[in-house]
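To close the section, here is one more complete example, presented without commentary so you can practise reading it yourself. The ligand is iron/sulfur cluster.
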Amino acid sequence: MADRVSAGERISRVEARELYTLPLTELGRLADLRRRQIKRAAYGGRGNEIVTYIIDRNINYSNICNVYCKFCNFYRTEKDADAYVLGEAELDEKIAELVALGGTNVLLQGGHHPSLTMDYYLNMLGHIREKFPRVNVHGFSPPEFQHFARVFNLPLREVIVRFKEAGLGSIPGGGGEILVNAVRERVSPLKCDADQWLTVMETAHELGLNSSATMMFGHIETLDDRLEHLQRLRDLQDRTHGFTAFICWTFQAAGTVLKAPTAGSYEYLRMQALARIFLDNFPNVQASWVTQGGSIGQVALKFGANDFGSLMMEENVVSQAGATFRMTLEEIRRLIRAAGYEPCQRDNWYGLIN
Ligand code: SF4
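Output:
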């Protein structure tokens, strides 16, 4: 099996299952090899010397949501005292702070608000584009788009077209969790199913919007569920080549109603390495230091990741469920250098900035 990975060949789901049993260091070595195969030609041939990061800001435009995922401690109902919907002035203040720091991207996400109109979203996108034309809006998520199509009573494709025309630049892979319906029915029964998640991404890719793909694991799913998730992502990527990156992280339990074991750093590294090997058509893998901390983030760079994610000026969903790691830009750059790579700022599409 190691020979197949060394030769740059694709591995099957059955083979992935076998790889998962390898000693951790061997699995890491193979993931690093795959990263080298995939990044060799990037950045003028310097793809394996560079680790990228992005300066962006998570902006949760609203915390009102009627989906009640069991792993989420972020949502509020409309009646809660701390429920909110951001207005333009608050948005402007947050994005201006981002721009002052050299940021290029906003990750704009909310819950499934039951009654915001399409005009609220289109006006928000148009406003950001007009006021901050150099900032990319990496916005919403497949479950939000399915929700919009239902609430606005419009075909999904038309909703995405309208959002793109208004200024949406790309779509984050939020709400992927595990793309297996038996799992989704238990952890997020009111959220869109696996096919619907993939349909949003396929439609967006067809319309020229790139997206990322995610996986949240370490709760009730099995290894086979995780492999099914990876298989579905790889199959879609074969058709569209619209995913820019894969990011996985472990379920953060604090304050959530989901009673499930959480995976530790050992399993995180094992899973990320396996994903890097299996997802041979994904150009980038991000390390998740937000849930694992800076040191494991550094180790993750030797386990297949080529990107250190984001400065993340604000992060609400994961942090409210117990992941509290924070870093300054200088720390990010120092950790990347200490791991043996050159830190480079990138844009949303993994192009280098400066
Ligand atoms: S994870 Fe998203 S969809 Fe689920 S309850 Fe939280 S805000 Fe709502």
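Once you have examined the tokens, check your reading against these statements. The mean pLDDT is 94. The first strand starts at residue 50 and ends at 54.
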